[in-house]
Amino acid sequence: MARPDKAAAVAELTDQFRNSNAAVLTEYRGLTVAQLKQLRRSLGENAQYAVVKNTLTKIAANEAGISTLDDLFNGPTAVAFVTGDPVESAKGLRDFAKDNPNLVIKGGVLDGKAMSADEIKKLADLESREVLLAKLAGAFKGKQTQTAQLLQALPSKLVRTVDALRAKQAEQGGAE
Prior knowledge:
Organism: Streptomyces edwardsiae
GO cellular component, one term: ribosome
Helix content: 55-70%
InterPro entries: Ribosomal_uL10 (IPR001790), Ribosomal_uL10-like_sf (IPR043141), Ribosomal_uL10_bac (IPR022973), Ribosomal_uL10_bac_type (IPR047865), Ribosomal_uL10_CS_bac (IPR002363)
Family: Belongs to the universal ribosomal protein uL10 family.
Strand order of the largest sheet: 2-3-1-4-5
Number of helices: 6
Structural class: alpha+beta
Function: Forms part of the ribosomal stalk, playing a central role in the interaction of the ribosome with GTP-bound translation factors.
Order of helices and strands: HEHEHEHEEHH
């Protein structure tokens, strides 16, 4: 029978997997406590970084419906549970790993889909959600301006065409 403390740990980890929209598994071997503290700060407010036991975390992930991470639970493992913008946390992990090569990104899960370490690094290269939304709004505004200019040009072009036809008819009428 499972010990109550282990059952509670599995239940807590299961809740974290269910309540986060992304989870990134890392190997932290060789990092000091001060470096781990710095890493937690670099992840932002919407992420929790926790050193975990592989067996318990594997059970919790499976209970949360995530079985794609099973192969990544080896060696010293820590998980970044992301509840906000996953791009911000991925950037924090990538930048920290550049300065501290002892941090190894193993892989993770985003909205229930497995991600390799390379895919997480590509995610980190994306711009933040706010920047992407601003660019999209700018593109929509630009298209609206183009549409308005086109709709304004049509009547004026029609008037110029009608005036040219009248002038041509007057010219032909005066020539006869």
